[in-house]
Amino acid sequence: MYRTVTLCFFVAALFFAGCAKPKLVLPGDTDYTVRSLNIEGAEHVALGELDTKLGVRVGNLLIPGQPYNRFRLVDDQRRVVAWWENAGYFDVQVPDPVVVIDDQAKAVDITWTVVEGEPSLVASSDLKQSPPELEGELRALIPFSVGDPIDLEVYRRVRHAMAQVLRDEGYAHATVYSRAFINRKTHEVHWVYMVDEGPLTTVGTLQVVGADNIPEDMIRARSGLQVGSPLSDVDKRKAEIDLLDSGAFSIVFVETDADVEDLILPLPPDNGGVLTPDRIDARGEMIPRALNGGLNTTLHVVDAPAAQTRVGANGQADLARIDAQATADLTVRNLFGPFHHLVVEGMAGYGWLWRSTTDEPLGLYGSALVRYVQPSFIARLIDLRLTARFEDRLFPDFHIREYGGGPGFRSTLTEDIFFDFDALYLFGTLSDYGPFSADTLNALTLYGSDQFQGLELSTSLILDGRFPDGLEAIDGQSLILRAAYAPGGAVGDARYLKLSADARIFRPITDALFVGLRAFGGWLVAEGEEGVPPSVRFFDGGAFGNRGAGVQQLASTAGSCDASGVCRGFAVGGMSSGLGSLELRWLPYRKPFGAVVFADAGGVGDGSNPFEQGVSLTAGLGLRIRTWYVPVAVDFSYRILDDDRTDALDHFQFFFRIGESF
Predict the structure, then answer these.
(1) Please, what's the b/e burial string for 400-436 (b: 16 or more CB within 10 A of its CB; e: otherwise)?
(2) pLDDT computed for residue 470 by the predictor
């Protein structure tokens, strides 16, 4: 029996060993880790992320380290030389590194020494053979002038930006070449960009590849492309977005036979473009290509799964409240036929109110939504949606449960401009709200009942040009304009018009330092005598608002007394809100950490002036933990100025959240 069991274990071990993938070992690899890596002699060239690009390096949370390998050190020597040559130090010398081996710790310490030499500078720049109508725009892209230092990679890649301008203008064949002529004796660099734009291009043929669930004629119609119509890169990107926005596809790619370079992003080291000898005439000038303006165009699509589920989690915390949320959504595509989808979304959260005087209901809240979507309902880019929703919202002193349903429309106007419209009939109930005296109701335009219902017409226009995304934007801008109108009267209990604008701008200062600006303003106007329900009033504060107070703590307040005569202050929301934020963000490339310095100023007003009670001004510092999937933000702030309602709150505040505040 013992021998049989032993034999079985031996056979199983051989089986699993045969299935295991062998570990690839490179020549020269050792089990010695890199304990330290130093580069000395860098007087005029910033090291940046050079240490993360070397083949033998120290690791961090984002970039794994690489063990000691003497062959890789030879490659690293060339990398260090290339780093300085990229900055115009073409006489740089990099001797073999000093490697100190610690056999006991199985670790090495590596020190590189660089002798920089004299830098070369720009002596001239030229742009040749550009279309006259675009020459000024292309010249404006050249980031250097005579006497400037060299950055080979940046200056070479300008040609891609130039080519993109031309392709966006309808020259889909456009290619720009970059050449740097270096005089090593005089340390001068003469830079030339050569433009070969080709003819204006059109759709020659149009076919669809990969479609299984959507008829090809519907795909062509949704794309907006037709045989004979002009074709630019803008048209291609818009067609891709319009098809993706239909919800039926997971991947869309518009391919043409334009004679352009295939680029892999992020861009590898650029060679300036390949020009064969037959493309150069006797005078040394470039010979343009002979090209056809009609392009063979293919719409490549990959159908999205018939049913798709996503789950997620989120959270935030401050000194007033901790929130934890779980989300899930289900999308069933083409359920009622091509381009007829069903979307189900849900969120459950718990808000722990540290200082609330409300005992019931507890801090549970959530939302649910069921939506039917039909892309291209009336016109190519007008999508119908029928919505039924439920929202349970937790406020500092009360609870709102709201039900709603009705039709709406959505349209993607351009690559980054979106329009929404909904006509929903709403019914809501308020828990632990009030009661308030008649004088208080009139003075603050408060809604006096614990129920409300009525038609609400809402619309939004969103311009989102943030880069690379909205979670940690470092460039670009966004603008969100919203309006909601409840006519009241025969179709509702309350009349109001809610307007808001939210603008955000992000700009890089250096490769690791960025500035972010935010300005928000909101107003409730055209209100009826019955007052405005708290569900649409303005509250501010928290990790994503004014960091001078906890979430929803900046609001108009009212006194409320119960039947036993016990009175307390009550946050009821304001009729206007204003917020301005400035952030200086240090987010180094491919580093697992970062930091910000910020200032927030804002207020919530009882009337049309959000600052009638004063301005809440806050400054603070923040830390960032930048993992691949969950960027964690922790902010510490101090409120410098109080409005008339915040002086009772803590001046020191703490915030935790996922992602940036704006």
Answers:
(1) bbbbbbbebbbbbeeeeebbbbbebebebebebbbeb
(2) 80
